[in-house]
Design brief:
Low-confidence stretches: none
Strand content: over 45%
Order of helices and strands: EEEEHEEEEEEEEEEEEEE
Number of helices: 1
Distance between the termini: 24 Å
Helix content: under 10%
Largest sheet: 6 strands, antiparallel, barrel
CATH topology of the largest domain: Thrombin, subunit H
Number of strands: 18
Mean pLDDT: 87
CATH class of the largest domain: Mainly Beta
Shape: globular
Strand order of the largest sheet: 9-11-13-16-15-14
Length: 230
């Protein structure tokens, strides 16, 4: 879980705002975490930043631990693709060994392929598919499939062609707070997409999950050393 926080104090007292989303580690050393960018934008445009004589803010990575959960401050933002709604974070060096990474595939799946989406919710679900996660939340790897791709103009795109695969449609519809979480190929176990939210596809298909293909993640790096672009 990634949390962006603001606390401000003025004559009326102390006010706080916290926006949370999901994220996942993509390198074996635990030094890089992929998440969505729009939650950070929500905090940056909060009116709390313009009020109060004492204002502090920060971003934190919250992970499960033997004692419940651990909080790690974000050390740096390594890269960002605002148009694709992706953010690359770096946790403190001392915390990196406690994170487990996921493999990332640069190859998009065809429509109809089965995937697992990492979804979270408030811990009110009684189904055995949900398990306790962090704080008062629960998580599940929901089974679904790739429904298609779109370019930035909203036109349909197809893998294996010269089409730009800027966004992906998938099922199931993600729950609030799942933005930034991984979409994993059920067969290989590799990340093939990142959850951003949900959008209306058309009147016939209705609302679908909205994300970006994992190949977009590689645009945040300078090859061949995979150093994060500034």
């Amino acid at each position: 879980m990634v949390a962006h926080c603001i606390e401000t104090t003025d004559a009326t007292g102390t006010k706080c705002k916290v926006v949370t989303c999901s994220g996942f580690v993509i390198d074996s050393e635990g030094g890089l975490i992929v998440t969505c960018a729009h939650t950070l934008e929500q905090i940056r445009h909060s009116t709390l930043l313009d009020t109060g004589s004492q204002t502090v803010s920060g971003s934190f990575i919250i992970s499960r631990s033997k004692d419940g959960f651990s909080i790690h401050p974000v050390e740096a933002i390594k890269s960002c693709l605002p148009r694709s709604d992706l953010l690359l974070l770096s946790p403190p060096t001392a915390s990196r060994r406690s994170f487990k990474s996921l493999p990332v595939s640069p190859y998009p799946l065809e429509s109809g392929r089965t995937v697992r989406a990492h979804l979270i919710t408030e811990i009110t679900k009684s189904s055995s598919d949900w398990e306790p996660w962090i704080g008062g939340t629960a998580k599940t790897w929901a089974r679904g499939m790739i429904k298609g791709y779109r370019d930035f103009a909203g036109r349909e795109s197809e893998p294996g062609t010269y089409d730009a695969l800027n966004h992906m449609l998938f099922a199931p519809i993600p729950t609030p707070g799942s933005s930034g979480g991984p979409i994993v190929d059920e067969e290989s176990g590799a990340v093939v997409g990142v959850i951003l939210g949900s959008r209306m596809d058309n009147r016939v298909e209705g609302v679908r999950g909205w994300g970006v293909p994992a190949e977009v993640i590689f645009e945040m790096f300078s090859l061949p050393g995979l150093e994060g672009k500034q």
